[in-house]
Amino acid sequence: MASLFGHALTSVAIGSSFPKNIQDWKFWLLGMFCSIIPDADVISFKLGIAYQDFWGHRGFTHSFLFAFILGVFITVLFYRKNLISRKGIMYIMFFTLCTASHSILDAMTTGGLGVAFFSPFDNSRYFFPWRPIKVSPIGVSNFFSEWGKRVLVSELIWIGIPSLVYIYSSKLIRRYKSVK
Ligand SMILES: [Zn+2]
User: What pLDDT does 19 receive?
Assistant: First the structure.
């Protein structure tokens, strides 16, 4: 994983380019939730499931199919009234993207096994050829260490700066459109 901060910030960046009229507090909170939840699979280590297994870390919960299912599920659960409308599609898209962003960041980290993007159809693990983000330690106590510090610095550069640029550009584009 990248750290919780890296994942959550990415969801905020993605959200910033969505229409203002769908952005309520649930939208932001649930977006962050989606961007973090794939790592609930670390419980598999405690259950004795091997890393490379279907339910192992970075397995099915890190796949695109899971991202889509979660996107639909969260929308049905929290925005049922909007489900059959343009807004509903936006919500599904947003929550799916937030969840998938988690796996994409993971595939850019330096450690562990790759991500099972195409599970359950193909359980191979993938990394991107370019992996600038330092892998984050698992567990809070490990995070407050020299390792944790290095992770935050690498995320500040590779997630923080691009996210802020993205958020700022979305704002500019929005302003430009409203002026036109
Ligand atoms: Zn992960």
Answer: 93
Q: CA neighbours within 13 Å on the CB side: how many for 62?
A: 33
Gap between the Cα atoms of 73 and 4, Å rounded: 22
pLDDT of res. 62: 97
The rounded Cα 27 to chain-centroid distance in angstroms is 14
pLDDT in tens, 95-151: 999 999 999 999 999 888 999 999 999 999 999 999 988 888 776 667 777 888 888
What spacing in Å lies between the alpha carbon of 22 and ligand 1's midpoint?
27
* d(C-alpha 20, C-alpha 40), whole Å: 30
DSSP state string for 49-69: --TTSTTSTTSGGGSHHHHHH
Distance from Cα 156 to the centre of ligand 1, integer Å: 18
Tell me how far the alpha carbon of residue 57 lies from the centroid of ligand 1, in angstroms: 7
Residue 180 CA to ligand 1 centre (angstroms): 41
Compute, in angstroms, the gap from residue 175 CA to the centroid of ligand 1: 35
Q: What is the pLDDT of residues 153-167, one digit of tens each?
A: 888 888 889 999 999
Backbone angles phi, psi at 119, to 5 degrees: -60, 145
